[in-house]
Amino acid sequence: MRIIAGYLLILLLIPAFIAVVILTYTEAGNAVSFSDTLDEKIDLSETKLSQTSLILANNGEVITEIYRPMNRSYAAGHEIPDFIKDVFIVSEDRNFEKHPGFDLPAIGRALAINIHSDDIEQGASTITQQLARNQYLNHHKSYNRKLSEVLYAYQLEKSFSKAEILEQYLNAIYFHNNAYGIKTAADLYFRKTPAKLTEAEQAFLAAIPNNPSYYDPINHFERTKKRQEQLIDRMAQHGKIKPEAAEKFKKEPITLKVDSRKNSYPDYSSFALHELRELISEQESFDSIDDLTARIEELLRSGVTIHTNLDIGMQKRAVQAVTDHLPDAKVQGAATVINHETGQIVAISGGKGYKTGDFNRATRLFASRDRQSSHCLFMPHTLKGLMQTGILELTQVPFASEDIVRKTTEVPIMAWLHWKGRSLTPTTHLP
After folding, report:
1. Does the residue 63 lie in any domain?
2. Which of 150, 193, 285, 403 is 20 to 30 A from 203 in CA distance terms?
3. Based on the domain organization, do 334 and 387 belong to the same domain?
4. pLDDT tens digits, residue range 379-430?
5. How far apart are CA 353 and CA 330, in angstroms?
């Protein structure tokens, strides 16, 4: 009887076993690996860092820097010296070349310290984790953010080489005073490119990101210098440099040459940005002004370079001439200087004491459709006065002879901005 019951039980279990096998096979087919899940949930396609846009004069000189909102110029890997790469690896992440984006032993040590302190005192973030935090996450201290940081770091390691990660990291980190990335920091504090920095200067800059406000080189130079020497000592301890070289680098004087944000000729720059907006509006269709503004902001964050026909010498003379010939504080004026041979606008004075954001009298007054308005009668007399005093030559303004100068109010002159080789629709009207 027991044998029969056993066989019956086996017969009953066989279908159940088959069902389990089928269900297991089906679920296995539907299962998604951990790696594939991360690929789906974490999008690293948007890896571009915001960069500073530039406006150039006709000689290639930078006249305006525009950052939205960060001041950053991107440096390719080959533009960054190996020495500063080693300094950051030694000081921030000695296992950088070995770990998969996170360092488990370091995380364990930090966790033990944090448990005893009942707070998050140590983070044990690798260079890859710091890049993830700067580029995709935030700086809020929490275990949830820390877990996200690890997952993003893992994805970064899957998607990029170690060299690419280090390059992105050195362009992402903050060097205080609104300087992001090694290239911007080198320019801001030393007026050099990264490749031109000495080893001592490189170590000095590497001292800042650990605590940018505390190691602000402008307000806390001695703190920064002390940390620089500590970093140089670490380089010697880990065999990256010889002890004699370390002593030499530490003794080298550090002289800051802080370069302020460039905004030399706002009268002209504001006009160039207005023309950029007009160009984009013409070339691309937008449903609203907000969409156009968003597109302009996107372009400016991408690090565009705007070439203009600004003649710096003429710009200075035009701005000074308006001030000199209109000494009365209650009287305002403006001037636009055009090369009559090419039709290029080479100088603009938007008004006495013009600053960024002010009403630009040289361009906005003439945007009126009423070209016979009283506003249009002032410009010729201003230019005529400049010419009569010898400040502007006849060949430097769009008038062919003294006879035409005497009749400027009767002769309409159209001006074009020549931007990147293209003549645009008339934007300024000089009667």
Report:
1. no
2. 150
3. yes
4. 444 444 444 544 443 333 333 333 333 333 322 222 322 323 333 333 333 3
5. 13
Q: Which helix (H) or strand (E) holds 179?
A: strand 179-180
Supply φ then ψ for residue 51, to 5 degrees.
Answer: -130, 160
Q: What's the rounded Cα separation, in Å, for the pair 145 and 262?
A: 37
Query: Which domain, by its residues, includes 139?
Result: 68-251
Q: Do both 270 and 213 map to the same domain? A: no
Residue indicated by tokens 């010498």: 313
**3-class DSSP state of 326:** coil
Q: What is the pTM of this model?
A: 0.65
Taking the chain (431 residues) in runs of 10, the rounded mean pLDDT of each run is 60 60 56 51 63 91 85 92 96 90 69 52 74 76 70 88 94 92 95 96 96 94 96 96 96 91 88 88 84 87 89 92 84 86 89 85 61 37 46 37 33 29 32 28
pLDDT of res. 59: 93
The DSSP annotation for 279-307 comes to HHHHHS--SSHHHHHHHHHHHHHBT-EEE
Strands 422-423 and 418-419, bridge-based pairing: antiparallel
The CB-side HSE value for 249 (13 A sphere, CA atoms) comes to: 28
| 199 plus 107 within the same structural domain | yes
From the list 92, 59, 52, 58, the residue with the least C-alpha distance to 75 is 52
Overall number of domains in the chain: 2
pLDDT digits (tens, 9 = 90+) for 30-77: 544 545 555 555 656 555 678 889 999 999 999 999 887 778 889 999
Between CA 276 and CA 262 the distance in angstroms is: 19
Examine the domain organization and report whether 312 and 424 are in the same domain.
yes
The two tokens of residue 65 are: 């820097």
Q: Cα(103)–Cα(69) distance, rounded to whole angstroms?
A: 32
* Burial class, 117, CB count within 10 angstroms (exposed 0-12 / middle 13-18 / buried 19+): exposed
273 and 157 in one domain?
no
CA dihedral sign of residues 170, 174, 177, 178: positive
Sequence-distant (6+) residues with CB within 8 A of 258 are 188, 189, 218
